[in-house]
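User: Before I run my own analysis I want an independent prediction to cross-check against. Here's the chain; please return only the structure tokens and, at the end, one sentence I can use as a sanity check.
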Amino acid sequence: MVPGPTPTPPEVAAAALLPVEDERTQAFAGVFSRVIDNLRRTLRTRNDVLLFTSSMTGAFEGTLQNLFAPGDTVLVASNGAFGERWSQMAAAFGLEVTEVRHAWGEPLDMARISAAAASPGLRAAIAVHCETSTAMVNDIRGFVSACAPLLTVVDSASGVGACELRTDDWGIDVVVGGCQKALMTPPGLAFASIGERAWEQHRRAGLPRFYFDWDETREALRAEIPRTPWTPAISLISQLDVALRQIHAEGLDNVLARHVRLGRIARAGVRGLGLRLFSPDEDRHSAVTAAEMPPGVDATELVDRLLDRYALQLAGAQPPLNGRVLRIGHCGFMDEFDVLTALSAIELGLADLGHPVRPGSGVTSALEVLHGLHSPSPTAARTARDRQPVP
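Assistant: Structure tokens:
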């Protein structure tokens, strides 16, 4: 239960065993086109969606290459490790960076961002949707509004499929994401949703590019047999196809509501264990829950203990929070019982390390919240789905 890569459903894992088909056939083009269409549905956009065989960092770099020229100035709003990484990437490509830096775990200050966005010469504004280093889910709709009329780029690596994201309704110009978090697929695929304003800026971009060239990728997508310009990860695309069909069979709104429920019970369980939440107790924070460790407990030691003794893998934090914060991932192929199991293991792990915990306190608090939720059980929905073949 780390923020990613996340567990894969059995059907998604099984799709890796299908025979590898030539990507230049009509049969595979049907799979590929269905993946693109379902990514659009997941991102809630009518924009072009381009798919790349790479980690998400590759698609992030491709976004910088396709939008900017050396010396361009970009605004980066950061409140964690991945926001700061965008600043580092932009600088590596010769861009000037105006960074609106916040303390890790603090929400974005829209007044500060709006003031910075008014600076002359800016070409775009960049923010992270779900900052998994702290479990903070940023207000992207507010960010886009605060930066208007700047072009906006949103890193939704662990947000898409777990947190509300309305690309077109919120006016986001570029959304970049990947497959190994809430989309329940092994790592190796990334994608970008690109709006018309971004295409206009792309025409004036001056950074060198080849593998991640948006023009080449869109041309291949619009060919008689739709495909990628370079040899794709065929098996991963087949797996992503199954995962996206499962998501839309469950219903995207139901999937997002399930993540909200998991976030609620995870946060309630953390509080029941006597731990402090590191990020706000709000429904927006539905992919990851971060907890501060009590005095005398090292998060890294607890993570090791949980894995070695209880076969539960959670995540610590990156510097400067390493040792201080524990992160519980609950996005993708997860249900209530996964979270309850994690809370039980954390309780035992804390006790093993000498921290007093009232037996059952975390699980009891989580169950009290769960009993108060009157919507249909996502576990029942998932069980019913698993009994039937994917359409």
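Sanity check: The chain has a mean pLDDT of 95.
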